[in-house]
Amino acid sequence: MADNLTANNQLKNILGMDRGTAPANVTTGLGLILWGTGLFLSNEASAKVPRYGEDTLPDVEAMGKAFDAEMEATGAKLDSDIGTYGTNVQGGIARDLVNRGLSDPGVSKASQAQYGQSLSGAYALAHKTLALAKSKASSVVENARINYLESVSKGQMDNLVKEQARKAGLWSALGGGAVAGIKEMTSKIKPIDAPATPLDALPDELTPKPVEGGYIPTMPGFPAKRWQDIKE
Amino acid sequence: MANYSSAMDSALSLINKQYSNVSGYYDEATTAFETQFSDYSGNTMKDAINAIAGSGIYESPVSEMGLNRKRASLAETYATGKSQLAGEKLSALGSIDSQRIGYYQNLATLQNANAMNKAASNAAMWGTAATVAAVLV
To answer: Do B90 and A56 make contact, defined as CB atoms within 8 angstroms?
Structure first.
């Protein structure tokens, strides 16, 4: 007997379409697809969270650089001002000596050299005072920067942990949904090892029954046939 | 989430105004110091020269040693005054920058909370829509 359960009929059997139960499985499949899509889109939506502090970090870094530049500029200005003052005083020394009749170049040179040494001492004292001020000011700014960076690191770590937890929940939910979907579909499948035959579909009163001698009654005028000679 | 933008903008503009004020105060203080020191150094040297003249050594090279000591003292005063002013300016700017960093720290917290709330509401919207669609189907 040829296998009358063709590939098409097998598919219909699996989906239950030959028994009129297709809508439940198809709607189940559609429902799972929509649910999975929603989970995916919700994950995408919740993933659009900016990294903590990403908008403010460039501004804080720029501030740090600007303050360092301000300190450098202030130190350079101080050197320039002291240098200008020293130059003016040494020029005054030369004029003053001339006014007092001390025109000997050696006197002028010695006086200016002596003043130059004392000016170096003034430079050193000024730099010491400024260095102390720079140290205090920069430590205040650095402490604030460190606190900010610590808060950014903690915030980013918190967001990362939440994101991982959400993804873990997402995959477990999808996995659970997939398992539920597969169970739903497989529960409606008819066993394949009991293929249907055309005879199974016939009501009992039409099912041919063996008669005496193995012949099936036929239409008048037609020769009787044996049951065993009937071919598919 | 409440709109925090206008309040934070006001805070930042106030901090920036303080920053520019410090620069203005420093320039005023520097000008005042230069003027006062010029008067002080002029009077000091005049007194020293008068003393030398009174001693009769005004035209002698040895008078330069005494005058140079006065000049060195004035240079030290000038350099110390200038560096103290510069140090005060850096201290004020550092304090204001510290406030500004604190502002950015608060702003980062508010921005993150706002973003998390928006993301959660979007996620809930998609999840609800999908669930409803699945039920209807």
So the answer is: no
